[in-house]
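re: ur question from yesterday

yeah so i grabbed the chain u mentioned. its 230 aa long if i counted rite. heres the sequnce exactly as i have it in my notes:
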Amino acid sequence: MSKRYKQLLEKIDNTKVYSVVEAANIVKELKSAKFDETVEVALNLNVDPRHADQMVRGAIVLPHGTGKTVRVAVFAKGAKADEAKAAGADIVGTDDLVADIKEGIFNFDVVVAAPDCMGLVGQIGRILGPKGLMPNPKTGTVTPDVATAVKNVKGGQVAFRVDKKGNIHAGIGKASFDADKIAENLTSFLVAINKQKPASAKGRYIKNGVLSLTMSPAVKLDVIELADIK
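ran it thru and got these structure tokens back, copy pasting raw so excuse formatting
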């Protein structure tokens, strides 16, 4: 363990759990890297995603964005393609975009698709899927309104999906954000997670949660408070 990391640990009381506001203030004090670190939230949910009715997945546009520049590729044609370009899409295409992806060219972070292009996207599903890039209606990335989808993604939309062990991880801001903006982004994210609570999920839904920076130790969140954020 490095001297820097030990110094950061001393700023956290590991015997207590922190409210959203307290955690947002503490992570501001944990900044130590030379770059603008990402504020990251990690949650462990009491769900079994092997069952379809316990899959937790969705997207939320954070009130203060993510602080990250996101490159968006859109599968669209005709008027929809024009709308996507006007909304700020970085790449718009159909067969040409499929060809680039098959060649291993990934100069984008998010993929949006108009419904009439999903047949094309299906051809590269095995490539996009493992990279977490497959568009999906639940995250708003398969939609006839491609312009709004592009604006949402560019404006700070965060997609989330529970993994096999019930974990959800997301970047919700930058260390340079004011603490109140970090708290508001985290609150919005938690509202979205709680809205997705499966009806079949029993007991405490959020088992534990932490907030951290890219290069910092984690701050434990008060799960009782997290459950009440609606």
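noticed a couple things. The radius of gyration is 19 Å. also The mean pLDDT is 95.
anyway ttyl
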